[in-house]
Amino acid sequence: MHLVPRLGSGIPLVARTHEMRRLRAAFARAERREAGAVLIAGDAGVGKTRLLTALGEHVAAGGALVLTGRCIDVRDGGLPYLPFAEALAPLGSSGDPAVAGAVRSRPALARLLPQSGEPAPMGPGEHGQVSGGEREAARRPRPEQDLGQLQLFDAVLGVLTEVAESRPVVILLEDLHWADPSTRNLLSFLVSRLRAQRLLIVGSYREEDVHRRHPLRGLLSELVRLATVEQIELRPFGPADARTFVEALADEPLPPDVVADIVARSEGNPFFVEELLATNADCRDLPAGLAEVLLARLERFPAETRRVLRVISVANEPVSHAALAEVAALGELELDEALREAVQHHVLVIEDGFYVFRHALLQEAVYGDLLPGERTRMHASYAARIRAIPQGRGHDAKLAFHSLESRDYVTALPALLSAMDEAEKLGAPGAALRHAEQALSIWDAVPVADRPDGVDELKLLHEASYFAGTSGEPERAVAYARSATEALATDAPLDRAAKVWRRLGEALLSLEGTLDEATQAVDRAYELVKDTKPSSVRAWVLATRAGVLRAIDQPGEALDSALTAVSDARAVGAVGAEASALITLGTLADSAGDATAARERLRQAIRKARDAGALNVELRGMYFLALSYDDQAEMTEALAHAARGVARAEGSGLTWSSYGLELRARQLYLRYLSGDWPAEDAAGRAGRGVSSAVAARILANWVLFLVARGRFDDAGRLLPGLRHQWQADIQIALSSGDAAVELAFWRADHFEAVRVTEELIAWLEKIEPWLLGGIRIAALGLASVAARAADARLRGDQQTADEMVSVGRRLLEHGRRCAVDGTPRSGTLGPEGHAWLARLEAAASGVSGPGDPALWSAAATAFGYGAVYEQAMCRYFEAQALLAHGLPAADALESVHSVASSLGALPLRDAVRDLAHRARVDLPGVTPAAAPVAANPLTDRERDVLERVALGRTNRQVGEELYISEKTVSVHLSRVMAKLGASRRAEAVAIAYDRGLLTTPAAGD
Question: Residue 534: phi, psi to the nearest 5?
Answer without folding.
Answer: -55, 135
